[in-house]
Amino acid sequence: MPELPEPTILSIARDKLERETPAPLDLGERIRTLRKARNWTLEKAAQEVGLARSTLSKIENGQMSPTFEAVRKLASGMGISVPQLFTPPKSGKMLARRSITRGGEGRAHVTATYEHEIIAADISHKRMLPYRATVRARHFDDFDGWVRHDGEELLYVLAGEVEFYSEFYEPVRLSVGDSAYYDATMGHNMISTSKNDAVVLWVTSQA
Hints:
By secondary structure, the protein is α+β, with helices and mostly antiparallel strands. The chain folds into two domains: about 10-85, 434 Repressor (Amino-terminal Domain), CATH 1.10.260; about 105-205, Sandwich (Jelly Rolls), CATH 2.60.120.10. The chain has helices at about 10-20, 25-35, 40-50, 55-60, 70-75, 80-85, and strands at about 105-110, 115-120, 130-135, 150-160, 160-165, 170-175, 180-185, 190, 200-205. The strands form two sheets. The chain has a six-stranded antiparallel sheet, with no helix packed on it. Strands 6-5-8 form a three-stranded antiparallel sheet, with no helix packed on it. The longest helix has 12 residues, at about 10-20. It is elongated, with a radius of gyration of 25 Å.
Protein backbone atom coordinates (compact mmCIF):
# COMPACT_ATOMS: atom_id res chain seq x y z
CA MET A 1 0.00 0.00 0.00
CA PRO A 2 1.60 3.31 -1.02
CA GLU A 3 2.40 5.83 1.69
CA LEU A 4 0.18 8.89 1.78
CA PRO A 5 1.95 12.27 1.70
CA GLU A 6 1.97 14.15 4.99
CA PRO A 7 -0.32 17.19 5.01
CA THR A 8 1.43 20.47 4.45
CA ILE A 9 0.73 23.69 6.34
CA LEU A 10 -0.89 25.06 3.16
CA SER A 11 -3.23 22.07 2.79
CA ILE A 12 -4.17 22.20 6.47
CA ALA A 13 -4.95 25.92 6.21
CA ARG A 14 -6.99 25.33 3.03
CA ASP A 15 -8.99 22.54 4.68
CA LYS A 16 -9.64 24.72 7.74
CA LEU A 17 -10.79 27.61 5.55
CA GLU A 18 -13.15 25.34 3.62
CA ARG A 19 -14.66 24.04 6.86
CA GLU A 20 -15.11 27.51 8.39
CA THR A 21 -16.35 29.34 5.28
CA PRO A 22 -20.15 29.27 5.31
CA ALA A 23 -21.94 28.04 2.22
CA PRO A 24 -23.54 30.78 0.10
CA LEU A 25 -27.04 31.60 1.29
CA ASP A 26 -29.86 30.25 -0.86
CA LEU A 27 -32.25 33.18 -0.41
CA GLY A 28 -35.16 31.35 -2.02
CA GLU A 29 -34.76 28.41 0.35
CA ARG A 30 -34.33 30.79 3.30
CA ILE A 31 -37.63 32.53 2.45
CA ARG A 32 -39.39 29.19 2.01
CA THR A 33 -38.08 28.05 5.42
CA LEU A 34 -39.30 31.25 7.07
CA ARG A 35 -42.71 30.90 5.42
CA LYS A 36 -43.17 27.29 6.46
CA ALA A 37 -42.04 28.07 10.02
CA ARG A 38 -45.05 30.39 10.20
CA ASN A 39 -47.35 27.74 8.71
CA TRP A 40 -48.12 30.09 5.83
CA THR A 41 -49.25 28.90 2.43
CA LEU A 42 -47.71 30.63 -0.55
CA GLU A 43 -50.95 32.58 -0.95
CA LYS A 44 -51.00 33.64 2.71
CA ALA A 45 -47.34 34.68 2.63
CA ALA A 46 -47.88 36.73 -0.53
CA GLN A 47 -50.72 38.61 1.20
CA GLU A 48 -48.67 39.21 4.37
CA VAL A 49 -45.59 40.56 2.60
CA GLY A 50 -47.44 42.44 -0.16
CA LEU A 51 -46.07 40.61 -3.20
CA ALA A 52 -47.83 38.76 -6.00
CA ARG A 53 -48.08 35.02 -5.43
CA SER A 54 -46.29 34.34 -8.72
CA THR A 55 -43.46 36.70 -7.77
CA LEU A 56 -42.98 35.04 -4.38
CA SER A 57 -43.03 31.59 -6.01
CA LYS A 58 -40.33 32.61 -8.49
CA ILE A 59 -38.15 34.04 -5.72
CA GLU A 60 -38.47 30.88 -3.63
CA ASN A 61 -37.57 28.70 -6.62
CA GLY A 62 -34.58 30.81 -7.62
CA GLN A 63 -36.21 31.93 -10.86
CA MET A 64 -36.09 35.62 -9.92
CA SER A 65 -33.77 37.80 -7.85
CA PRO A 66 -35.79 40.08 -5.57
CA THR A 67 -35.41 43.84 -5.85
CA PHE A 68 -34.46 45.80 -2.75
CA GLU A 69 -38.10 46.85 -2.36
CA ALA A 70 -39.18 43.20 -2.50
CA VAL A 71 -36.54 42.30 0.12
CA ARG A 72 -37.81 45.09 2.34
CA LYS A 73 -41.38 43.85 1.99
CA LEU A 74 -40.36 40.27 2.73
CA ALA A 75 -38.53 41.23 5.91
CA SER A 76 -41.24 43.61 7.11
CA GLY A 77 -44.06 41.18 6.37
CA MET A 78 -42.29 38.41 8.27
CA GLY A 79 -41.57 40.63 11.25
CA ILE A 80 -37.78 40.52 10.96
CA SER A 81 -35.04 42.91 9.86
CA VAL A 82 -33.40 42.81 6.43
CA PRO A 83 -30.10 41.50 7.90
CA GLN A 84 -32.01 38.71 9.65
CA LEU A 85 -33.52 37.72 6.33
CA PHE A 86 -30.01 37.02 5.05
CA THR A 87 -28.68 35.51 8.28
CA PRO A 88 -30.13 32.17 9.45
CA PRO A 89 -30.07 31.62 13.24
CA LYS A 90 -26.73 30.11 14.33
CA SER A 91 -28.45 27.46 16.41
CA GLY A 92 -30.46 26.28 13.43
CA LYS A 93 -33.59 26.71 15.54
CA MET A 94 -36.05 29.30 14.29
CA LEU A 95 -38.54 30.72 16.78
CA ALA A 96 -40.44 32.73 14.17
CA ARG A 97 -42.24 34.64 16.93
CA ARG A 98 -44.32 37.76 16.36
CA SER A 99 -46.68 39.71 18.55
CA ILE A 100 -48.96 42.62 17.67
CA THR A 101 -50.12 44.92 20.46
CA ARG A 102 -52.75 47.46 19.45
CA GLY A 103 -52.78 50.88 21.07
CA GLY A 104 -54.19 50.72 24.59
CA GLU A 105 -54.40 46.91 24.56
CA GLY A 106 -51.18 46.13 26.42
CA ARG A 107 -51.25 44.43 29.81
CA ALA A 108 -51.65 47.02 32.58
CA HIS A 109 -49.25 47.13 35.52
CA VAL A 110 -49.79 50.10 37.83
CA THR A 111 -47.41 51.23 40.58
CA ALA A 112 -47.31 54.29 42.82
CA THR A 113 -44.92 56.07 40.45
CA TYR A 114 -45.59 54.60 37.00
CA GLU A 115 -48.53 53.30 35.04
CA HIS A 116 -47.11 50.62 32.77
CA GLU A 117 -48.61 49.05 29.66
CA ILE A 118 -46.67 45.86 28.90
CA ILE A 119 -46.17 45.30 25.16
CA ALA A 120 -46.04 41.82 23.57
CA ALA A 121 -47.23 40.32 26.84
CA ASP A 122 -48.29 37.12 25.07
CA ILE A 123 -44.67 36.16 24.33
CA SER A 124 -42.79 34.56 27.22
CA HIS A 125 -39.02 34.31 27.70
CA LYS A 126 -38.33 37.46 25.68
CA ARG A 127 -34.84 38.89 25.43
CA MET A 128 -36.36 42.36 25.63
CA LEU A 129 -39.16 43.67 27.81
CA PRO A 130 -40.90 46.57 26.02
CA TYR A 131 -43.51 48.69 27.74
CA ARG A 132 -45.20 52.06 27.49
CA ALA A 133 -45.28 53.98 30.75
CA THR A 134 -47.14 57.01 32.05
CA VAL A 135 -44.85 58.72 34.56
CA ARG A 136 -46.99 59.63 37.57
CA ALA A 137 -44.16 60.57 39.95
CA ARG A 138 -43.60 64.29 40.42
CA HIS A 139 -40.81 64.34 43.00
CA PHE A 140 -37.72 62.23 43.59
CA ASP A 141 -39.02 61.55 47.10
CA ASP A 142 -42.00 59.72 45.58
CA PHE A 143 -39.64 56.76 45.19
CA ASP A 144 -38.53 54.48 47.98
CA GLY A 145 -34.86 54.81 47.06
CA TRP A 146 -33.24 53.99 43.73
CA VAL A 147 -34.73 51.58 41.24
CA ARG A 148 -32.23 48.89 40.21
CA HIS A 149 -32.49 45.68 38.21
CA ASP A 150 -30.44 43.48 35.90
CA GLY A 151 -29.88 44.32 32.25
CA GLU A 152 -29.62 47.48 30.19
CA GLU A 153 -32.45 49.84 29.40
CA LEU A 154 -33.56 52.30 26.76
CA LEU A 155 -36.14 54.97 27.40
CA TYR A 156 -37.66 57.19 24.72
CA VAL A 157 -39.94 60.12 25.53
CA LEU A 158 -43.24 59.94 23.63
CA ALA A 159 -45.11 62.83 25.27
CA GLY A 160 -44.42 65.52 27.86
CA GLU A 161 -41.13 66.13 29.61
CA VAL A 162 -39.26 64.15 32.26
CA GLU A 163 -36.32 64.59 34.56
CA PHE A 164 -34.16 61.48 34.52
CA TYR A 165 -32.05 60.68 37.57
CA SER A 166 -29.16 58.22 37.52
CA GLU A 167 -26.91 57.35 40.42
CA PHE A 168 -23.58 58.57 39.06
CA TYR A 169 -24.74 61.45 36.83
CA GLU A 170 -26.45 64.78 37.21
CA PRO A 171 -30.22 64.81 36.54
CA VAL A 172 -31.12 65.56 32.93
CA ARG A 173 -34.31 66.91 31.33
CA LEU A 174 -35.65 64.90 28.40
CA SER A 175 -38.37 66.06 26.00
CA VAL A 176 -40.34 64.39 23.19
CA GLY A 177 -37.96 62.51 20.92
CA ASP A 178 -35.13 62.43 23.47
CA SER A 179 -33.83 59.09 24.71
CA ALA A 180 -31.43 57.58 27.21
CA TYR A 181 -29.65 54.22 27.19
CA TYR A 182 -28.16 53.08 30.48
CA ASP A 183 -27.01 50.27 32.73
CA ALA A 184 -30.10 49.36 34.75
CA THR A 185 -28.05 47.96 37.65
CA MET A 186 -27.16 51.62 38.30
CA GLY A 187 -29.76 53.35 40.46
CA HIS A 188 -32.26 55.32 38.35
CA ASN A 189 -35.59 57.13 38.71
CA MET A 190 -37.67 59.46 36.56
CA ILE A 191 -40.32 62.09 37.24
CA SER A 192 -42.68 64.11 35.07
CA THR A 193 -41.93 67.82 34.84
CA SER A 194 -44.54 68.74 32.21
CA LYS A 195 -48.09 69.92 32.99
CA ASN A 196 -49.50 66.51 32.06
CA ASP A 197 -47.93 63.20 33.03
CA ALA A 198 -45.21 62.29 30.57
CA VAL A 199 -45.40 59.11 28.50
CA VAL A 200 -42.27 57.09 27.64
CA LEU A 201 -41.39 53.92 25.83
CA TRP A 202 -39.10 51.65 27.85
CA VAL A 203 -37.21 48.63 26.54
CA THR A 204 -35.34 46.52 29.08
CA SER A 205 -32.92 43.76 28.12
CA GLN A 206 -33.52 40.35 29.70
CA ALA A 207 -30.76 38.03 30.85
